[in-house]
Amino acid sequence: MSIEVRQAPNGFAGEILGADPECEEDFEAVHQAFLDHGVITIRNLPLSPEAQLAFSRRFGPLMGRRPSTPDKVLMPGQPEIVILSNRKENGENVGITDAGRYWHSDLCFEEEPNLGTIVHAIEVPPEGGDTLFADLGQAYATLPDDLKSRIEGKRAAHTFRKHYLEVMAEGSPRPPLTEEQFAALKETYHPIARTHPDTGRKTLFINPGHTTHVEGMDEAESQGLLDALFEHCLQPQFIYRHKWWVGDTVIWDNRRVMHNAEPYDMGRYTRHMHRTCIHGDRPF
Ligand code: SIN
Known about the structure:
Layout: E1 4-7, E2 14-17, H1 24-37, E3 39-42, H2 49-57, E4 74-75, E5 78-85, E6 88-89, E7 92-93, E8 114-123, E9 131-135, H3 136-141, H4 145-151, E10 155-158, H5 161-169, H6 179-183, E11 188-191, E12 193-195, E13 202-204, E14 211-214, H7 219-233, E15 239-242, E16 249-253, E17 257-261, E18 272-279
Parallel strand pairs: 2-3
Antiparallel strand pairs: 1-2, 3-16, 4-5, 5-18, 6-7, 8-16, 8-18, 9-15, 9-17, 10-11, 10-14, 12-13
The chain binds succinic acid.
Succinic acid (SIN) binds near residues 259, 273 and 275.
C-alpha cells in the first residue's frame, strides 16, 4: 500500500498523502481512516467534477437535489455537486457564498441524513475561511453521567427552517428556496445519542444550527439540556481546525462530527469548492 495516514498536528482528524482515488486498495485505506478519524484530508488531490463524483460514489449513493438547496447552486448537468463559492459569472453568484457558517451536521434534518460530506478545494483565501470540526464521538464518551442519563432514550427535533429563516432575515446573498422547497422542509426526530452503524461507537447527534428541541420536554428544560450538551461538545479538546490548501479533499463523517465554516474577506479573496454528500441510514 502506498498511502500514508497521519494524525493532524492540531486535533483528531487524519491527513493522507498519496492516495489514488481510482485504486480499490487505496480506497479501503481511505475509508478506514475516515472511520478511525471522523475527518480526513487528502492533500494535493486535484479532482475534476467527474472524478469527485466517481470517488464519492465509492462511499455510497449520493444525495443530489434537496429541498434545502437552491437549484441555482448545483453544478449544471451534475446536480450531485453543490458549489460553495463567492465567484460570480455574468454578475451572478455561481454558488452558495455563505454556506455552513454555523455549527451543524449536513442534512441531519432528513429522515436518512447524510453519511459523509466530501469537499474539494479549488481556490482558497490566504486568511479566514477555515472549517472547524467538533468530535461528537469523543464528546459522548466524556459526557458527565448526569447528562448521559438525561438523554438516555431521548430524541431531538431537527429542521432546516430555523437556520434558513435566520440567514435570509440577515440578508444572505444566497438564492432563495422556492415555495415548494420551503414547504417540503420537514421537522425530523432522531436519537440524541446515536450508534455509529460502522464502528458501533455511540456519538451525540445534535447541533446548534438545526436541532430545535428535545421531544416531550417543555421549552425551558429542553433548551437548558441542549445548551449544556453544546457547551460540552464545543470544548477546545474536541475541536479540529482545518486550514484549507488548494487541492485538499476533505471527507467528514456527519454521523460523528459537526462543523462550522468561518467567514473570510469576500471583497478581497475567493473561496471556491465543490461539495458532494453521501446518503446515510436512519439513525438508531
Ligand atoms: C458546509 O457546511 O457544507 C460548508 C463547509 C465549508 O465551506 O467549509
